[in-house]
Amino acid sequence: MTPASSKLSLRQHDFLLFAVMGILAGCGLIYEYLLSHYTARILGAVEQVIFAMIGVMIVSMGLGAFAARVFKSYFTAFAWLEVSIALIGASSVLFLAATTALANLLPQILMDTFSLPPDLIPRGGMITWAHRIATTVPYVTGFILGFLIGMEIPLIASIRETLYGEHIKHNTGSVYGADYIGAGIGAALWVLFMLSIPPTTAAVITASVNLLVGLLFYSIYRKRIHFGIWVVSAHLLVGGVIAIIALNGTDWDNHMEDLLYKDKVIFSYNTQYQHVTITERIMDPAREKIISMFINGRSQFASNDEIIYHSMLVAPVMHAAARQDNVLIIGGGDGLALRDVLRWQPQSVDLIDIDAAIVEFFTTPLIKNGTTVNQALLDLNQNSFSDPRVKTRFGDAFIKVDELIQEQLLYDVIIVDLPDPSHPDLNKLYSARFYAKLMTLLKGDGAIVVQSTSPYHAKNTFLSIGKTVQYAGFKNVEQYHHNVPSFGEWGWTIATKNGVSARSRISQIDSLKVDDGWSTKGVILAAFEFNKHFFDRLDKIKVNRINNQAAYKYHKDDWEKQQGIFIIEK
Fold first, then answer.
1. Where does 430-568 have alpha helices with state H?
2. Most CB atoms closer than 10 Å: which of 234, 262, 338, 437?
3. What number of other Cβ atoms are within 10 A of residue 116's Cβ?
C-alpha cells in the first residue's frame, strides 16, 4: 500500500495532478485575458486597461501563492477553491457590466427622480464617485480572482507531497512546468477561439471547466475532503448559476451594454481583434436614421457627418496627386474612404486592413430574423467593396506593405486611415520606419495623407505625426484640420514626394474635379490655416520611432490631460 492510500499508483496520481494543473493554468490565463479584454471594452482606454489588469492579476496571484500556506487540509482547500473560482469567473463579466451600466445610468435616474430639465445633467459629487467605483471594480474583481488562482500551484504541490508522504525533490518545478504548458494552451485557445465569442460565453465555458475539475478532484479524493456534502452542494449550486448565465448571460450583457451608448444598439459582435457596436438614432421620423459605429467603445463614425471626415481625408490628397489611377488605402475597413476614392474612377485600389471580419460586415448582407442588419452600412459605403477594381489584403499593415514593395507596386495616392496611436502596436504604424516604407511605394508625382488625430485634444500627437512624416523623407509635408461634429476638431497630414506642396497644387486648380457632396476648393484651402502660435513648440516635439514610442506616449498624455489628469515631472 502506497502512502497515497488509493487504488491509483503514485505515477497515476502525478499524471492526474499535472493534468489538473495544466488545465487550470489554461483557465487562469483565459480569465486574465478575458477580464483585461472586457474591462478595456467597457472603460475604453484599451492599452492602459489591458496592461493594468494583467499587472494586477499577476501581483494578486503572487499574494495568493503566499496565502495558500495558511491551509492545513490541502485537499479540502483545493475543492473549495475551484468552486469559488468557478462562481466568480462565471459571473465576473455580468458583474462588471452591471456596475458600469449603473454608473452610466445614475445621472438619468437622478434626473427622473427629481424632474430635472434635459439640459441639467447631474455632474460631480455622487456621479463622480459612481464612475470612480465603476472603474475600480474591474481591478478589484481581477485581484480577487487572481488571488484565488494563485493558490492553485502551492496547493497542488502540497497535495503531491502528502500523497508521497515525504518531500519531493523538484516538486514545485514540476508543477510549474505543467502550469506553463497549460497557460500556453490557454493562450492559444483564447486567440483562436474565445476572443471572437461573447465574453459571457467564454466565462461560462472556462468556469465550467473549473467546476468539472473540482468535481473530478472530489470524486477521487473525497475521503480526504472534509464536509463533503457541503462541497458537493456548492458545486451543484454553482453549476445551476453557470447554467442560468449560459442561457441568459449574453442577452443580459447586451442589455447592460446598451446603456453605455446614448443611441439604441442595433447590433454588436466580436471579431478576433476587436468588439464592434452599431447604434442608431432617430432624430426626425421624416429623415434617415443616424447610424454610428464604435470599436472597443470608441467612436469610428456617425452617418450624419462621416461625409465631412472622409471628404477631408480623400479630396485634398486626390487633388494633390498628378494622377489617381492606382490608389492604396491602409485601414478604412468600413469602405467609406474607398467609396470616395472610387468616385475618381481609378484603375485599381488596394486596401489593407487587419480585420477581415470588419470588411466582411461592410461587404456582405447579414440577415438576422429576416432583416438585413447591415443594410444601412452597405448603402452608406455604396457597396464599395463589391467593385471589381478593389483588392483587399488582410494582415498587419506594417508587414503587408513589405509584400507590396517586394511586388514592386507603385501608387499615385496613398491614404492612411488608421485608428489613433493609442496602443503600442498601433504606434509602429505612425513611425518613421513605416512612413519610409510608404515613400518607397509612392510614385514621384504622387501624394500621401495620414489621419493624424485631433490638433485640439491631442496637439502633441498631431505635431509628432507631421514631424515624423517629414523625417521619413517626404519633401513637402503640411497639416490641415476641420471640425467633424462626432469627433470635434480633427486633423490630417498630407505630403508630396517631389515638386510643389499639396496646398500649392490645390490652389492652382480652378475648381474641384470630383463633387463629393461636401468639399469646395475654399473649404480645403482654409483647412491649412492654424492660429498664429500653433507650431511654436514644434522644435521640441519628438519624431516617432518604433523604439521611443513617442506618438503613443504623446497620445496617452494628451488625452489624459483632456480628462483632467496631469503628470507633474520633477
1. 432-441, 459-471, 502-508, 521-526, 550-562
2. 338
3. 14
The band of 285, judged by pLDDT with boundaries at 50, 70 and 90, is low
- Which residues are marked as active site? 417
Measured CA to CA, the distance from residue 67 to residue 261 in angstroms comes to 41
pLDDT of residue 566: 39
Q: How far apart are CA 191 and CA 30, in angstroms?
A: 10
> Is residue 291 scored above 90 in pLDDT?
no
Cell 480526504 locates to 224
Alpha-carbon span 321 to 501, nearest angstrom: 10
pLDDT above 80 for 522: yes
Q: How confident is the model at residue 539 (pLDDT cuts 50, 70, 90)?
A: very high
Q: Grid coordinates standing for 477?
A: 509635408
Q: How far is residue 260's CA from residue 41's CA, in Å, rounded to a whole number?
A: 11
What is the band of 369 on the pLDDT scale with cuts at 50, 70, 90?
Answer: confident
pLDDT in tens, 175-192: 889 999 999 999 999 988
Residue 315 in grid coordinates: 479630396
Whether domain 10-258 has CATH 1.10.8: the reply is no
Domain residue spans of the chain = 10-258, 264-298, 306-562
Per-residue cell: 264: 439604441
What is residue 394's three-state secondary structure?
strand
DSSP string, 323-360: --SEEEEEE-TTSHHHHHHHTT--SEEEEEES-HHHHH
Which grid cell sits at 14? 502525478
User: How far apart are the C-alpha atoms of 558 and 535, rounded to whole Å?
Assistant: 16
The CA angle 54-56-62, to the nearest 5 degrees, is 105
Closest among 247, 240, 239 to 211, alpha carbons compared: 239
pLDDT at residue 119, as a whole number: 58
Strand duo 348-353 + 390-394: pairing? parallel
Q: Which residue has the higher pLDDT, 98 or 385?
A: 385
HEC assignment per residue over 100-155: HHHHHHHHHHHHHHCCCCCCCCCCCCHHHHHHHHHHHHHHHHHHHHHHHHHCHHHH
For helices 10-43 and 74-113, the axis angle rounded to 10 degrees is 10
DSSP helix/strand/coil, 500: coil
CATH topology of domain 306-562: Rossmann fold (3.40.50)
Phi/psi region, residue 125 (left: phi>0; alpha: psi -120 to 50; beta: rest), is: left
Spell out the SS3 assignment of 243-301: HHHHHHHHHHHHHHHHCCCCCEEEEEEECCCCEEEEEEECCCCCCCCEEEEEECCEEEE
**Residue 197 Ramachandran class (φ > 0 left, ψ -120 to 50 alpha, else beta):** beta
Q: Would you say 348 and 410 are in contact if contact means Cβ atoms under 8 Å apart?
A: no
Using H for helix, E for strand and C for coil, what is the string for 19-32? Answer: HHHHHHHHHHHHHH
* 413 bridge partner residues: 327, 447
- All three cell numbers of 356, joined, read 477581415
